[in-house]
Amino acid sequence: MVERMTLILDMFEHRSMRLSLMEICNHSGLPRSTAHRILEQLVKLHWLEHTPTGYTLGRRALGLGGYDGTHGEIRAAAAEHLHELQLRTGMVVHLAALEGADEIFLDKIGGPFARTLESHVGQRSFAYRTTGGRAMLAWLPPEEVEALLGKRLAKAKDWTLPTLHRELNRIRRSRGLSFDRGENSTMMVGRALPSVATAIRGPQGPVAAICLCGDTNTSFATIQRIAPLVAETAARASRALSPDVQPRPRGQHRHPNRPVSRPAAASPRPA
């Protein structure tokens, strides 16, 4: 088992490398079931991380090289831009990443109002329930969304898979901007507050999201008006993290860094 684990870990030649299960099977010669079982153990032990775009080195492996992990790099790249956004808007700014089917908060910036919110760094939430989570999910192919959330949504009472696909399509049509009037924020921050979020992107897709949250006096119209600032901040953070990431030129076909749309299913959206 140790020899096979080492064989898999040796495939990751640099810290940003991502490999799919199929690629790992092809390079290692291991059967799919065997490779999947070993990968699950490596993820559980934090030697690897399983992301929506494949497997990458986890914090335990990265720590051996003096690197504090993917989340630390994201926070460092985004920090200056998050503070500027908070100063320009006076609102609470959250930075979050997608881990499997969950959103995890990496940072939280704001004035006195921020301290009254229940959200905190390290908090996990179901990605489909959050503004930032949906902003990241919108950049994934529909089949990946279904693989991540299909089983969980089959048991959920507040959302369904067709409902989520329709919402992700709306985000794609809005150039990646995810909005919430407050109906889904109570379980995250403890009260109903309007918010807007958009994804920070890397070469392989979404790596994080910036979410701007208003207070009880903030109207949804205000959130819509300042949404371009959030998009601008995320674009700058994306360039700081991955300088080679560029917007898709018009007229080109599907690109891994552009949200992928799918036909909307006829299912009522939860209130």
Describe this structure as you would to a colleague.
With 271 residues, this protein is α+β, with helices and mostly antiparallel strands. It has 2 domains: 1-57, Arc Repressor Mutant, subunit A (Orthogonal Bundle), CATH 1.10.10; 66-241, GAF domain (Beta-Lactamase, 2-Layer Sandwich). Helix content is 42%, strand content 17%. It contains 10 helices and 8 strands. The protein has helices at residues 2-9, 21-28, 32-44, 59-64, 70-89, 131-137, 142-155, 161-173, 186-189, 220-241; strands at 48-51, 54-57, 92-99, 102-109, 124-126, 178-180, 195-202, 205-213. It has a 6-stranded antiparallel sheet, with helices on both faces. The chain has a two-stranded antiparallel ribbon with strand order 1-2. Strand 7 (195-202) and strand 8 form a beta hairpin. Helix 5 packs antiparallel against helix 10 (220-241). It is globular and about 60 Å long. The termini are far apart. The model is unreliable at 65-69, 248-258 and 260-271 (pLDDT under 50).
